[in-house]
Amino acid sequence: MGEEANYNNMDRMINSSQEAEVRKGPWTLEEDLILINYITHHGEGVWNNLARSAGLNRTGKSCRLRWLNYLRPDVRRGNITPEEQMLIMDLHARWGNRWSKIARQLPGRTDNEIKNYWRTRIQKKVKHCEHDYQNVMLTDEAIPSTSTSQLNSVEDGASTQPNYPEYNMIDAEALEAPQFSSHESSDNFWTVDDFWSMQPLNCD
DNA sequence: AAGCTGAGCAACCGCACCATA
DNA sequence: CTATGGTGCGGTTGCTCAGCT
């Protein structure tokens, strides 16, 4: 139903603009099949050439994105498990918004999906929990300020190792300390201790 | 039932980096 | 050394849909 609406929109887009121009917007089922079929028989290669050779009126960039984020056979979509969420949160705490790097630690997940997941789910929860935490601090001054030293401890990753099994999947390169010069490099930045101090996240 | 709103997601954009001619 | 083209990445946009009033 929704897809049909998309196709109708695409038809309108195509009809209203010059046919020769490179297409943008949602991919049609037909385009998907062409791309899948072409890559199945010829491999990925140079994307600009691929787009031309396959007869797709798309940029190589668009084809690459569609293939990597959606059409690849090993792409897993939806249903991010709690374990994956924990891993995403921990790796984000280590590396910041290095989505492609994070995605490499989650087989079948794409950087785009993780990025979207972070922005729509985790970031919202983090903010919500931070808000709750601030409210608690404002209303209960009896709580000792132990968090400062804990928050600083993120720099030595060893003290903050999560204890879920997926951690064994991470290779040595992946575990190297992140090269953060300062937190201002990312508005989204938060430390792993922030996470461990606020979990479980389902605090709503 | 209709309108509104926010969440979720696919896709695009712009920039940086790299390879090669 | 420089220009050019291809690729990868992070940020952002815009569309769709479900839930709410």
TrEMBL record:
Biased composition (Polar residues): 146-163
Superkingdom classification of source: Eukaryota
Cellular localisation: Nucleus
Keyword Chloroplast: no
Gene3D superfamilies membership: Homeodomain-like
PROSITE patterns reported for this sequence: HTH_MYB, MYB_LIKE
Domain Myb-like, first and last residues per copy: 19-71, 72-122
Main location as per UniProt: nucleus
Ranges for domain HTH myb-type: 19-71, 72-126
Keywords from the UniProt entry: DNA-binding, Nucleus, Repeat, Transcription, Transcription regulation
Annotated region (Disordered), positions in chain: 146-165
Gene Ontology cellular component terms for the protein in this record: nucleus
Keyword DNA-binding: yes
PANTHER family: MYB TRANSCRIPTION FACTOR-RELATED-RELATED, TRANSCRIPTION FACTOR MYB24
Protein name: Myb-related protein 305
